[in-house]
Model the fold of this input.
Amino acid sequence: MRDLDALPFPARDLVDIERYRSAWKSAHGFFSLNLVASRGCPYRCNWCAKPIYGDSFHLRSAERVAEEMKQLKENFGADHLWFADDIFALKARWAQELAGAVAQRNARIPFKVQARVDLMTPETVAALRRAGCEEIWMGVESGSQKILNAMDKGTRVEQIPAARQILKGHGIYTGYFLQFGYPGETWKDIQKTIDLV
Done:
């Protein structure tokens, strides 16, 4: 499906939200709900299964996403949101549009996402922060360029600390997804990842 805006919001009224809220609050001290802004990922990391949406990437409009954020904040009392997208902020202009749409609707609520180091430009990160982003988990994978190349990751080691600094400068917490044991990885490669972290 290409036009994701044609889909209705999830039927959350069919979920026992109070039970869900209670479980979240007892475990984490706040109530978080999930949503998605996009489907798929166009990158070709050779270890990734991409079992559901494949290589195609389709994005909801920033306005629809902001509207759903507002609904989750006002109608369901969410304290936090977790975007379950495979990749977030792939399009820099969309991130700017989201920040504007969120501000226009008073829909700002803390959220976390998954993204790539090469997407974390100062402009994109500033827009995400304005929209409410507080935490970004990046697919770092390795501190060894040899391993990143073997993975067909399409990123460079030096982009990792650069992205981290940009996020830190905007007060966004950073998490790294890492892999160990990739075919051909040596102790020297592992040590590079440890040193990076």
Remarks:
- The chain has a mean pLDDT of 95.
- Helices lie at 17-28, 62-74, 92-105, 122-131, 145-150, 159-169, 187-196.
- The longest strand covers residues 133-141.
